[in-house]
């Protein structure tokens, strides 16, 4: 089964997964059954999604995260096809240094690098990184930064004398594998963010707002891009809670927050308000207002994750058919890429691939290898005994 995009082409949605470089867990707002972001566990996730049919993984950035370029380099050596959507934050290093990081990672991964531009976040954290700019001014800075960055990747040299960035005869020793550069992704809901994005990026990302709100945003971005004679494609960042039935999925959603108390919710919501100037974060928080009784903000779109998690705070909840139908609604308004996640990320990567991918027309490695087929005869799992894990059904 394939899905039909808004352009009329028959293509499964492009599906990436998330690498939890700040840690993982089973229950939100709880210290029980947590997992540290040690490299062995992150490698397990990356290798699993590499086999399961995901096209790539997102690595976040921030003081609470393992450094994205270093982690991606380690995981690239342990995977084969997986692309790495690596966060790049202008201002934490020079454009020339980031250009060297990007081309090196693209070369050692044989062209598997994607770049996720992160301009916003916590002003306090940004100040700690040496970035002392107001919200909109950060985008003016980013425009100068990426002018130098892109020229280096495309030509190998760059000079620029701007308000924020000054580069004199900057040079890049080696080109990237991808020509002229790895694709640029970006997410930002403010007018300044949208204006920056449409002049430069290849894919605009939104967090998982209800389809009507996403449609409004896509229309706005398309119009702004059209005014610059550019086209931008679109992706969405969502969590997933997929089970065999809708009832089981909603039960799993409630289990995820069953240890979450009101004081923890209140503390998290106050932190989002006072520590972030992100327009997207404000839009996420407005979906639920910190209330447990207002979490289904659109059919099967659940905002429980956003009670305590900054950034992407909504999950699609339901059976494979239900979630696939909700994703088709996003496809119909222009979304062609999903960046998914679930708690814990290793187990939920398997659930999404095994339950949801068949509904989306995404082929997994096990299907290509014929794991469930013995010379064309139907099989069932027989418990993994020494006599064989698979039993041929008699009479088939």
From TrEMBL:
Keyword set, alphabetical order: Flavoprotein, FMN, Monooxygenase, Oxidoreductase
Pfam families for the chain: Bac_luciferase
EC category name: oxidoreductase
Domain Luciferase-like: 14-336
Swiss-Prot/TrEMBL GO biological process terms: alkanesulfonate catabolic process
UniProt xrefs under Gene3D superfamilies: Luciferase-like domain
Catalytic reaction equation(s): an alkanesulfonate + FMNH2 + O2 = an aldehyde + FMN + sulfite + H2O + 2 H(+)
Keyword check for Secreted: no
tRNA processing among keywords: no
Superkingdom of the source species: Bacteria
A GO MF term: alkanesulfonate monooxygenase activity
EC numbers for this chain: 1.14.14.5
Family: Belongs to the SsuD family.
HAMAP family: Alkanesulf_monooxygen
Task performed by this protein: Catalyzes the desulfonation of aliphatic sulfonates.
Protein name (Swiss-Prot/TrEMBL): Alkanesulfonate monooxygenase
Species, as recorded: Rhizobium johnstonii (strain DSM 114642 / LMG 32736 / 3841)
Organism lineage: Bacteria, Pseudomonadati, Pseudomonadota, Alphaproteobacteria, Hyphomicrobiales
Record gene name: ssuD
